[in-house]
Amino acid sequence: MPDAHVQRLLRIPGIGKAVAFTIRLEVDDIARFPDERHFFSYCRLVPGADNSGGRVRSKPSKEGNVYLKIAFSHAGVRAVQYYDEIRDYYRRLKRKKPEAVARTLVAKEIARIAYFVMRKEEDFNGRFKGKTLVRLKSEQWPLLPSPDA
Fold this sequence. Notes:
By secondary structure, this protein is mostly helical.
């Protein structure tokens, strides 16, 4: 049976049932992350550092939770697919950055929303990067039995 966190996560663009349960089960207690930056790092949504000899290079991070990386990446792809405002943001990013980086930045924004939804225990406010989404998801699950049943 889904708890309140799963119900709130389902309202976020791109997050379906499987992704919501994955996020909920892999995060467990959101209070263990002091801020969103620690959460992004745990979700593998920030580049790792390879520092040597005074040079700083970025590389894909191998530390953190691979399942959260996959879940938020999938949510980002679905959000770009179905929400015009998120698609516009993705296209703006893609003009300046490689496609993989643009996808990760969309996933990171969805992770930011998920972090604050779970942390504050409030419903998703319908905004993405300061823009109000035209389409909002309705409460989908669990389906309650009809009164006639």
